[in-house]
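Work Package 4 report. The design task specified in the project plan requires that, given a folded chain encoded as C-alpha cells, an amino acid be chosen for each position. We show below one input record used in the internal validation round.
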C-alpha cells in the first residue's frame, strides 16, 4: 500500500462547473491517477474525511467512489478501505450507467445480454443506489426514530413533511403533510384507498377496459364487483362512464390520467373535466394513480378538478427505485383520518428505518439531479425503441418507461409473446390488462430495461421488429 497523503493530491475546484459535484470529483480523482499523483495501490481517504476537506456531503464522495469502483478504476477491500486499482484489474461484470465528462450525454454501459426482460421497467442506476446506501449508513449510526418502538403517526411527521415537499406541484393543488398516508409502495396505497372507500355488501369498482391489473385484483380481493368503462384516444368515454354508473352501487373509479397503463396515452384536459363532473353528479369517488410519469405533467389532476372526491396515489418506483416500496396515498379533505386508520390497521405504519430514510431521501439536494439523469437515460432507451420500430403502430412518451405496440395483421398477442420469448425477449400481452371476459386487442406492452446496455436493448427491439415483419408465423394461433 502506498502511503501518499491522497487528500492533498486530489485537487478539486467546483466553482461554476455546471456538472453535478460527484462528476467534478470523479474527474479530479481520474486526473490524479492519470498524472501519477495517485499510483496503483494508493489508499484513498475515508468518505467522511474527504467530504469534510472539500466541502461536500458524504453521499457525494460515496457516490464517486462507488462509480469509480464499478468502472474498475478503484477497488474496495472490506474493512481496509478504497484503493487505486491496478491498471489491469478486472472491472465488475455489471457496470452502472455513467455520464460522460465532456457533456450530459448518458454513457450507456449496462451489462450486455442476449436475453432481455422487458416485462416491467428497470431503472438505470445513476447514483441513487449510492445515495440510499449513504443515507442508510447515517440512519444506522443514529436512527432518528429509534429501532425499538412501534411506528407512530408522530414518528412519521418528518417523512410526511418530506413527502409533501417532494409531491408538491401546481397541478396537484394545495397539499399538507397530514393529507398524506405513507404506504409500502403504490399497490398498498391503492389497497388502503379501496379499503377506506368501499362499503356495503356489493360495492362496484370501475376500471378502464384496459387498465393496470392491480386495480382489478385488489378490488376482487376486497370482494367488490368490477365493471369496465370504454376508452378512446382521449381517455375514458364519458357516455360509457355515465352508463356504468346507473343501476349499481358504483363507489369509485380507478384511473391513470397522466399515463394510461398499458396504452401509454394521456387524458386531455377537456375529457378530465367531463369525467370529474360525471363523478360529482353520480357521487363517485376517483382513485387517481400517478405512478408512471417521470417528468412533470402540465394538465390539471383530478385532485385539482374534484378535490372533494379524489384520492391521489403515487410512489417512487418509476422515478427513483422500486426496491424501497415507498408509496403515498393522499386523501380528500375530511377523509385524512379514515385513510390514516386504514394504514394503521393494516401494518401499524411504515417501518421506522424506512420513514427515517424517506425523511432524508425525498428532500436530499442531490435527488433532483439524479431523477433528471434517470429520466434522460430512460428517454434515450425509449427513443431508440421508437426509431427501430418506426412505421409500426407504436404509442410512447419520452418520459414514460413503457411503450404500447399494436400488432400488424397476422399476429395475435399471445403468439407474438411466445415468438418473442423464443428470441430472448419477454414482454406482456394486452390480455393481462383486460377483464377476464373481454376481447383484448392484438397488442403488447413492453418496458425499458436500462439494466442492460443500450446496445443489448436495441438488439432485442430489433429482434421484435424482425418478428413484426414476418407475421405469418402468428397466423391461426
Amino acid at each position: 500500500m502506498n502511503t501518499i497523503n491522497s487528500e492533498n493530491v486530489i485537487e478539486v475546484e467546483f466553482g461554476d462547473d455546471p456538472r453535478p459535484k460527484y462528476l467534478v470529483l470523479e474527474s479530479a480523482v481520474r486526473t490524479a491517477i492519470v498524472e501519477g499523483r495517485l499510483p496503483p495501490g494508493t489508499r484513498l481517504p475515508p468518505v467522511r474525511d474527504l467530504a469534510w476537506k472539500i466541502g461536500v456531503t458524504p453521499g457525494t464522495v460515496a457516490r464517486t467512489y462507488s462509480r469509480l469502483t464499478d468502472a474498475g478504476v478503484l477497488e474496495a477491500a472490506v474493512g481496509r478501505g478504497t484503493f487505486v486499482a491496478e491498471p489491469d484489474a478486472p472491472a465488475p461484470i455489471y457496470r452502472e450507467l455513467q455520464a460522460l465528462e465532456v457533456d450530459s450525454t448518458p454513457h450507456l454501459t449496462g451489462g450486455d445480454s442476449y436475453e432481455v426482460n422487458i416485462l416491467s421497467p428497470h431503472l438505470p442506476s445513476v447514483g441513487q443506489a449510492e445515495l440510499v446506501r449513504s443515507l442508510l449508513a447515517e440512519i444506522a449510526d443514529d436512527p432518528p426514530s429509534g429501532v425499538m418502538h412501534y411506528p407512530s403517526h408522530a414518528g412519521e411527521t418528518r417523512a410526511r413533511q418530506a413527502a409533501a415537499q417532494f409531491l408538491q406541484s401546481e397541478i396537484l393543488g394545495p397539499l399538507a403533510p397530514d393529507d398524506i398516508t405513507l404506504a409500502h409502495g403504490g399497490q398498498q396505497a391503492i389497497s388502503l384507498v379501496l379499503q377506506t372507500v368501499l362499503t356495503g355488501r356489493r360495492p362496484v369498482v370501475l376500471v378502464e377496459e384496459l387498465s393496470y391489473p392491480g386495480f382489478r385484483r385488489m378490488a376482487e380481493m376486497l370482494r367488490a364487483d368490477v365493471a369496465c368503462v370504454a376508452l378512446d384516444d382521449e381517455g375514458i368515454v364519458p357516455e360509457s362512464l355515465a352508463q356504468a354508473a346507473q343501476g349499481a352501487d358504483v363507489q369509485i373509479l380507478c384511473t391513470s390520467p397522466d399515463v394510461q397503463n398499458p396504452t401509454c396515452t394521456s387524458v386531455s384536459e377537456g375529457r378530465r373535466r367531463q369525467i370529474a363532473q360525471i363523478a360529482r353528479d353520480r357521487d363517485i369517488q376517483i382513485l387517481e394513480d400517478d405512478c408512471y410519469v417521470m417528468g412533470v405533467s402540465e394538465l390539471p389532476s383530478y385532485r385539482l378538478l374534484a378535490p372533494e372526491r379524489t384520492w391521489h396515489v403515487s410512489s417512487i418506483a418509476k422515478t427513483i427505485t422500486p426496491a424501497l416500496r415507498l408509496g403515498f396515498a393522499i386523501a380528500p379533505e375530511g377523509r385524512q383520518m379514515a385513510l390514516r386508520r386504514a394504514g394503521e390497521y393494516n401494518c401499524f405504519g411504515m417501518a421506522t428505518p424506512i420513514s427515517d430514510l424517506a425523511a432524508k431521501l425525498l428532500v436530499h439536494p442531490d435527488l433532483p439531479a439524479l431523477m433528471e439523469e434517470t429520466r434522460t437515460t430512460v428517454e434515450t432507451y425509449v427513443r431508440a425503441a421508437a426509431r427501430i420500430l418506426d412505421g409500426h403502430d407504436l404509442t410512447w412518451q419520452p418520459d414514460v418507461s413503457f411503450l404500447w405496440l399494436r400488432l400488424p395483421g397476422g399476429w395475435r398477442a399471445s403468439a407474438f409473446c411466445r415468438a418473442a420469448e423464443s428470441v430472448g425477449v419477454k414482454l406482456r400481452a394486452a390480455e393481462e390488462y383486460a377483464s377476464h371476459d373481454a376481447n383484448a386487442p392484438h397488442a403488447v406492452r413492453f418496458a425499458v430495461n436500462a439494466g442492460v446496455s443500450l446496445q443489448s436493448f436495441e438488439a432485442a427491439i430489433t429482434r421484435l421488429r424482425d418478428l413484426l415483419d414476418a407475421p405469418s408465423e402468428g397466423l391461426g394461433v
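The longest helix spans residues 367-388. Validation will be extended to a larger panel in the next phase.
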